[in-house]
Amino acid sequence: MAWGKEPPSPREMAIALLARREYSRAELATRLQAKQVPADEIDVCLDELAEKGWQSDARFAASFIRTRVLRGQGWRRIENDLRQRGVDGEIIRAALDDVVEQEAIDWFELARDVLVRRFDSPGQTPKERAKRERFLLGRGFDFEQIRYALSCL
């Protein structure tokens, strides 16, 4: 992206990133650090963006959750991925609760749907069942949801 003769301010860089998609505060800070922006300037910039409502970890988390549910991922994987992106645990829990309520997400049915798309039977041997269980575990579903999904095949 051509910025002209003068290097962009941290605010301009952050806004350019946010214009494409939502970012967590920690992700933005990492991106700005990579561009050699001093830490104190990053904090001031991100505080300003949050005050104006241009950056919100809660909004980022809700958007992230919706996207990942559409990909067929379970709540455990989603929660872990959000933590890795620097989102606070309380924000994650609140966003999960809100999105589950708004979108009427049933984790058990989602696990079943994901399993049905990938496999046509619960598996005849213990090895085949274990393969299906590992698949759903990797997707972030808990054991009760996996048991339910396997019982529906």
TrEMBL record:
Residue span, RecX third three-helical domain: 106-150
Alphabetized InterPro entries for the sequence: RecX_HTH_1st, RecX_HTH_2nd, RecX_HTH_3rd, Regulatory_RecX, WH-like_DNA-bd_sf
Ranges where the RecX first three-helical domain occurs: 11-49
Alphabetized UniProt keyword annotations: Cytoplasm
Localization, UniProt: Cytoplasm
Domain RecX second three-helical as annotated: residue spans: 56-96
Domain of life: Bacteria
Function text: Modulates RecA activity.
Protein name: Regulatory protein RecX
Lineage: Bacteria, Pseudomonadati, Pseudomonadota, Gammaproteobacteria, Oceanospirillales
